[in-house]
Amino acid sequence: MIVAIPLTLLAGLSVMNILAAGHYFLTLLAAPFVWLPPAISRYSLPSSMLKKEWPPLFDGPLEAISVRDFWSHRWHALFRRTFLINGGVPGLAVGGYLGGLINSIFPLARENASMRRTGMRFGGVIGVFFVSGVMHDLGAWGVGKGTEFRSITGYFLLQGVAVVLEEALGLTGVGKPKAKADKASNSEPTANGNGVVTHEMENYRSPSGLYHYFMGLWSFVWVVLPATFMLDAWLRRGVTCVIIVPHSLSPARALIRVWNDFAYTS
C-alpha cells in the first residue's frame, strides 16, 4: 500500500496531463477559426470571449478540499451530460420512489416531508457515479481481458457514498463557490462549466488553516486510497499498455526519427 499510493497519484496526474495536452492541442487547431473576421469564419468571436470559450479542463485537483469539490469543480467534466442523463435522471426517479416507499411503510417517516427529496438526492448522486464506473469498466473490457466490477465500478460508487456522507455531515459547503456565476469576479472559467474560484472556495468554509488541511486530507483519503484497487485492476488487464495513437502517426516519434537521421547518419 505504501508503494501503491504514490504510483496511483502519479497515474492520476498522468491521466490529467494527457487529457489536458489533448485538449490544448485541439484548442490550437480549432481556436484560429474564432479569431478570423466574421466575413471569413462563421465561428468568429470577440477577443473577450476567447478565454470563456476555450477554458482548461482541470482546476487544480490537488487543491480539492472535499470529494464533492474534487468531482464537481476540480476534475474534468467531459462526460457530465452523459452521466447526468443516463445515471442521474434514473437515479432521481429510483431514489424518489424508494423515499416515498419508506414514507408509506414507516409511520414515523410520514412526518418527514423531506424523505422523498433525500432519496432523490441520494439516488441521483449514486446514479451518476454508477454510470461513470460502468464506462470506465467498459474501457477495461475493451482491452479483451474482461472487467472487474468490484474494483472499478465499485470505486466510483464509493465516491458517490463519500459525496452523500459529506452532505449528511454538513460538509457540502466546503469547496462550494459563494456565487454560482459571479460575473464580477476575475476568475477564469474551466471546461466543466465552473469558474475558477479557488480563493473563494478556500475561504468559504475553512475558517482556519487546520480545518482546510483536514478537508484536504479527507479528500485525499477518499479519492486516492481506493483508487489503488482500481489501478491494480487496470494494470492486471493491460489497460495501461493500450496504444491510443499508432506509432506511425505519433508526432513525437516522428521528431525522434528525424533527429536520429540528422544526428547519427554519416
Ordered list of secondary-structure elements with their pairings:
Blueprint: H1 4-30, H2 32-35, H3 50-53, H4 67-74, H5 80-105, H6 107-110, H7 115-141, H8 153-168, H9 198-204, H10 209-223, H11 227-236, H12 251-264
Helix pairs in contact: 5-7, 7-8
Characterization of this structure:
The chain has one domain. The protein is 61% helix and 0% strand. It has helices spanning 4-30, 32-35, 50-53, 67-74, 80-105, 107-110, 115-141, 153-168, 198-204, 209-223, 227-236, 251-264. Helix 5 crosses helix 7 (115-141) and helix 7 (115-141) packs antiparallel against helix 8.
Beta-strand residue percentage: under 5%
Structural class computed from helices and strand pairing = mainly alpha
Low-confidence stretches: 178-207
Order of helices and strands: HHHHHHHHHHHH
| Fraction of residues in H or I helices | 55-70%
Shape: globular
CA radius of gyration: 22 Å
- Total domain count: 1
Offer a few descriptive terms.
266 residues; mainly alpha; 12 helices; single chain
What's this, in brief?
This protein has 266 residues and is an all-alpha fold. It has 12 helices and no strands.
